[in-house]
UniProtKB/TrEMBL annotation:
Activator of Hsp90 ATPase homologue 1/2-like C-terminal domain: residues covered: 14-140
Organism: Carboxylicivirga marina
Protein name in the entry: SRPBCC domain-containing protein
Gene3D superfamilies xrefs: 3.30.530.20
Stated family: Belongs to the AHA1 family.
């Protein structure tokens, strides 16, 4: 369903290479994304999982890389252990005159069952705004 697709865009005053490293090197990802990511590789088929405490509930995030184009695009299959549903998150980078535009697309939210507050569209939109427009933006600056 198209209405369940979430898109978050932001421009960064840096090269595509620098932004790519921030979103694919685990040491950098821990600085702005989730600080407990155990490992990460921008390689097709790479999988990782880690627990996220959302306050009332804890979620085991399970990521699998399903598409990679070096310094252009990385796409995760994103699931939660114990919950039905499969989501996909794509980070797409476009360089423009020394700046880089990041377009994040989150698809599949409607597939998650049972519905819990953390899986609402509003919560996901707010989460991506926080991670991309605040945390990553501040990290790159």
């Amino acid at each position: 369903m198209e209405e369940d697709v979430i898109i978050c865009q932001e421009e960064f005053n840096c090269s595509t290479k620098k932004l790519w490293q921030a979103i694919t090197k685990v040491e950098e990802m821990r600085q702005w994304f989730f600080d407990n990511i155990p490992a990460f590789k921008a390689e097709l088929g790479f999988e990782t999982s880690f627990m996220v405490d959302a306050g009332e509930r804890k979620f085991m995030h399970v990521w699998k890389i399903v598409d990679v184009k070096e310094e252009e695009l990385i796409k995760y299959q994103w699931t939660y252990d114990g919950f039905d549903g499969v989501g996909y998150v794509t980070f797409e980078l476009n360089e423009m005159a020394g700046r880089t535009r990041l377009i994040l697309t989150n698809e599949g939210l409607e597939t998650f069952r049972p519905k819990v507050p953390e899986f609402t569209r509003e919560n996901c939109e707010n989460g991506w705004r926080y991670f991309i427009k605040e945390r990553l933006k501040s990290y790159i600056a």
